[in-house]
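so my prof wants the structure for this chain in the tokens format not the other one, which i didnt know existed until like an hour ago. anyway here's the sequence
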Amino acid sequence: MDRRPGLSVRLRLTLSYAGFLAVAGALLIAVVWLYILRYVPDNPKGLLGISPNRYLLVHTFFPAAAVAMAFLLVFGLVGGWLLAGRMLAPLHRITDAARLAGAGSLSHRIRLEGRGDEFRELADTFDAMLERLESHVAEQRRFAANASHELRTPLAVLRTLLDVARKDPQRDQGELIERLDAVSTRAIDLTEALLILGRGERGDFPREPVDLSLLAEEAGETLLPLAEQRQIALDVDGTAAPTTGSPELLLRMVTNLVQNAVVHNLPAGGTVTVRTEEHGATSVLRVENTGRPLPPDLVPTLTEPFQRGSERIRTDEHAGAGLGLAIVHSIVRAHDGTLDLTPRPGGGLTVTVRLPVGT
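here's what i got, hopefully its the right format
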């Protein structure tokens, strides 16, 4: 925005200080006149024998008062300029940091020393904002790189299959079409997962009352055939857990959690339990599955995009894109909730989602 040039804050503070001192001095002189000099007898001719008198006091006091007023004005200007510069020094550092951030440098921090005041509170807030922005930008760059890498693989496979079909027209068309369908389905699923993850990060969705217990039942019914195929006992139960948000995104969150619990529940014959409840001002969804032990240091990384975990066994029919828990984490954050992942002592994982109770 183009603005007309104006006085700097430092100059305005300086003029304010000097003006305040001048007004204070003028008021002091006025008080002297009103309450002292006016009651002194007047002797305009300066006759001897009448001392002190108003005439002499006025002619001796006002020149000295004028000199004092001039001194106060100069003192106010110089002192105000120095004092304003010292007081506004933190603001200059904040401005320089903002300018660097605007130029793309997010690693710079202000880190003002000293006791807390308004400027230091502003600087600390700005530092925290820069830290979040830097983390978010780094995460977005890493996500974009991983996404392009993940999408490149199925697209490269599609191109290879098409080249093979072009060079070998006698090849079994049924097998080729089946493989093309599988690869294209994986690419489409990955793209849809990326779109859902983006919606969750932006938080631009309408909100309405939702019951997590109903979503858990729907997800359980949808994934029951997959659980039976893998010989996994799927148990869905619980009480009403109302919240407010996007039914579509929350259903995807619950479905991803249950699907992850089923897919990574190896060896066969394990169990998956899904429980919902309302606890105070929080609605809780807990998904627990048996399986192989998970290292504690691996668990916090499972919510990162494309992080599958080296200890988590995958099968070809449900390889996934490594976005399941990343999508869950994004949706939970967009709904002002928390996500906790805890490895079970006997193996497997317990995932707990806490969302604010809907109004």
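also thought this was worth mentioning. Helices lie at 9-35, 54-102, 118-167, 173-202, 212-229, 247-263, 324-334.
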